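Q: Hi! First time doing this. I have a protein sequence and I read that you can turn it into a structure. Is that right? Here it is:
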Amino acid sequence: MTAAARAPTVAIVAGEASGDLLAASLVNAMHALDPSIRFAGVAGARMQAAGVECLYPVEKLAVRGYVEVLRHFREILGIRRALRARWLRDPPDLFIGVDAPDFNFSLEADLRRSGVPTVHYVSPSIWAWRAQRMKKIRKAVTHMLALFPFEAPLYQQAGVPVTFVGHPLADLLPAQPDRLAAREQLRLPREATIVTLLPGSRESELEQHASLFVRTARLIAVRRPDVLFLVPLVNRTTRTLFETALENDGAPGLEMQLLFGHSHDALTAATVGLVASGTATLEAALLGCPMVIAYRVPALTYRIMWPQRRLPYIGLPNVLAGEFIVPELLQDDATPENLAQALLNLIADPLVQRRVEARFSALRASLRRGAADAAARAIMPLLARAP
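A: Yes, that's right. Below is the predicted 3D structure, encoded as structure tokens:
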């Protein structure tokens, strides 16, 4: 193959399950514009199915918080050094970092200095904490792809090229979630009261939330023995962690239906949800699931991060609404008693459920913009300018 006919190469790094989903949609959209593009990097199962060569599995980077990163620091640093050396030695035509900002920004800065254009897909939460990261972003990122409408002006003011593309989840999920169809898919009673528990996708999140969520369900079951509990889990490791918590902290007669995947069906089918803060809260909102948001991190991580917050809420539905539309119970407030009471209150008030669902419907409309295609169109001119 001549240099003129050489297939473009794109290095791509995703850092967790949600990034794998976003990256896979983007890869498919870019392949629709140019099927010859070759992708390689840190990839999950969806990215690999889309044609990305996996140099390291996405699970290697799926840690969050200072304490968790320290536990895996040597391995993560080794992966970043290996990727940097590989791509400086044999530069790709373009680098795309999908979320994972603490990992990707350093890599992007080095590659950009060497002449490789860099795209970062998913703005970090600079509007919530650590606003000083904008300096690093300005040096590292050739073009930012923002998922939320309020993010683009922040980058424009800082002189960082940016495109608001909407959120891919809003495009991938149904425009009108169908609760009865989801219950039929999962073989659940049409009229049942269902609570879906999403304790997180990372091992570190399960370590914080599995026992907490099981004990919460146990309290709910005492007062509402009719409630059915669904627990979608992303892989065998997280399932094992949750099963251990259920064995240790469950109670006779407490039944939970553990699912591999099926989070979309489980959230759509739910009367209400208990959801660990993160992308899953947006997923729940887009699927019309009224929820209580919970989150715990190790005490040291909390003491370091919490003073840096800029907003009174952390759940994405509340951030996007600019107010509390669903309850958040964090850290010491996230007790089984508090969570159970908040969920029981929500279960008992259909009017509040309908009000929350209406807000979620408006949110879904604002983010449904064909994000993967918009992102691909923003990226392709950078790839076309590559040598």
